[in-house]
Design a protein that fits this description.
alpha/beta, 38% helix, binds glycinamide ribonucleotide, single chain, globular, 6 helices, 185 residues, seven-stranded mixed beta sheet
């Protein structure tokens, strides 16, 4: 059973916000202790502050970032590290050290379209369906054990922007559902 969590972000933080809201509304039984970033002031920080969650810029350098994060996790007995639009690849050392403690959301049905710009690549390839995946993070890029997947049928009469936005809404719902399933374990 997970209790104390941190969220790692790099950008907008819409997944982060939906998780924070779910915690506030007791839909999720997690305490979000802090929001960290590899960027100095991402838009996500403003959102976290609105919910009175402390924010911290780690470093843009991976070794320093992981050192500080490890220190915080140990000191504060963090159980779960939630990646929500965090755009750095963590080192194999770090992921091995926190095995089954780091979760990520990816905007595709893994193992299809791993890596960056998954929505654009799914769209351009012309696939009829894609989806979202919540998974544990291991040393590979989007290769860890899958926790939950949800499919999304692409409506090609609509624009790419519409598709991306609808998929993001599905991400929000799927992340909550996946974290709930961990919460029960
Ligand atoms: C989301 O679509 C998330 O799946 C993606 O970045 C976006 C962040 O949006 N992450 C990845 O592609 C990771 N490989 P958000 O900041 O609004 O949650």
């Amino acid at each position: 059973m997970y209790k104390k969590a941190v969220i790692l972000v790099s950008g907008t933080g819409s997944n982060m916000e939906s998780i924070i809201k779910a915690c506030k509304e007791s839909v999720l039984h997690l305490k979000i202790e802090r929001v960290f970033s590899n960027r100095s002031n991402p838009p996500a920080f403003e959102k976290a502050t609105k919910y009175k969650i402390p924010t911290e810029f780690l470093s843009s350098k991976l070794d320093r970032l992981e050192e500080r994060l490890s220190e915080y996790i140990h000191k504060n007995q963090i159980d779960l590290i939630i990646l929500a639009g965090f755009m750095r690849i963590l080192s194999p050392n770090f992921t091995a050290r926190f095995k089954r403690m780091i979760v990520n959301i990816h905007p595709a049905l893994l193992p299809a379209f791993p890596g960056l710009d998954a929505q654009r690549r799914a769209w351009d390839t012309g696939v009829a369906k894609t989806g979202v995946t919540v998974h544990f993070v291991d040393e590979g890029v989007d290769t860890g054990e899958i926790i939950l997947q949800r499919e999304f049928i692409i409506d090609r009469t609509k624009s790419f922007e519409f598709f991306k936005n609808e998929l993001l809404k599905l991400e929000h719902r799927t992340y909550i559902e996946a974290l709930q399933s961990l919460d029960k374990k």
